[in-house]
Amino acid sequence: MIPDHALEWRPRHPTDLRQTLGSLRRGIGDPSFQLDQAGAVWRAVRTVDGDATVRLRQLPGGLLRCEGWGAGAGAAVEQAPELLGERDDPSGFVPLLPVLDDAHRRNPGLRVPRTAQVFEALAASILEQKVITLQAHDSWRRLVIRFGTRAPGPTPRPMHVAPSPEQWRAIPSWEWHKAGVDPRRAATVQNAARHARRLEEAVGMSQADAAARLTLMQGVGPWTAAEVAQRALGDADAVSVGDYHLANYIGHALAGRDMSDEEMLEALAPWAGHRYRVVRLLGAAGVRGRPRRGPRMPFVDHRSI
Asked: d(Cα 283, Cα 71) in Å, to the nearest integer?
């Protein structure tokens, strides 16, 4: 099927398509994100012009190509270079430690993406608050399929665009319950949906002002704001303070011991401006953190409550 819009470009920095976009996928069952057998990434997105599906491919010689279908295809394709890290500048990053030097050398194409879709990233991040990742991904999948819209174009399998703010607001309480989302998180998503237009303004703000705008929302704290900044705003410095595992992961990766959030921030201080890049590089390189022992976050089935 011939795309409605297409763009080929040579990125400013080496770019690995799947590594760069991997952080946007909400589990292997994410109905808005697919990988095909040829290695292309498919995304179903909402733009100011309407819904769109894009196929992103890595071409020989370091070129990238984006093809789009649907009413919003033009806007989605135009945004593709930014999505794939065109604004991300790793030139000031200095590894300093052998473990980071090795990770950086082995993953030269890892960029920090920028979707410029603040509310979409916020809704997904709120679903991930205080629950295990698999549980949050299951909730996301159920709600996007049930209340989103079918993605246009020749997708490798049926895909869905995440609900609009109006669609999130219209979800009844029993559907949240069936999706395993407790009333607090459901109310936080729906409250944010009421202010979605103001939240989207964060795209044009400084990192500090964007975080301040996001955390004005009841139920949105530093962890959630950082998760949004990492995806929607392309913030290579945003650290998910308050994460259940991150401080100890960074502590063991960099110093061989557990750390508190405060100690983690102190340990990451030499990489100011690139602290999230450090986290991504360590993960991409397969660096092991804390050994798997001790308590894990429990699964809470809110559907039985």
From this structure: 36
State how far the Cα of 232 lies from the Cα of 117, in Å rounded to an integer. 5
219: left (phi over 0), alpha (psi -120 to 50) or beta: left
pLDDT digits (tens, 9 = 90+) for 174-197: 999 999 999 999 999 999 999 999
Taking residue 123's Cβ as centre, other Cβ atoms within 10 Å add up to 25
Q: At what angle do helices 222-232 and 118-127 cross, to 10 degrees?
A: 140
SS3 category, 124: helix
H or E stretch covering 44 = strand 41-47
pLDDT at 294 exceeding the cut of 70:
no
**Are 106 and 33 within 8 A, CB to CB?**
no
Q: Return the half-sphere exposure (C-beta side, CA atoms, 13 A cut-off) of residue 1.
A: 15
Burial class of residue 211 (count of CB atoms within 10 Å of its CB; 0-12, 13-18, 19+): buried
Contact 85, 237 (CB under 8 A): no
Among the residues of the chain, which ranges form H helices?
A: 17-21, 73-78, 80-83, 98-106, 118-127, 133-147, 165-169, 173-178, 183-194, 196-200, 207-215, 222-232, 246-255, 261-268, 275-284
Type of residue found at 291: P
Spatial distance between the Cα atoms of 297 and 113, rounded to a whole number of angstroms: 28
Reported pTM:
0.93
The C-alpha atoms of residue 267 and residue 283 are separated, in whole angstroms, by: 17
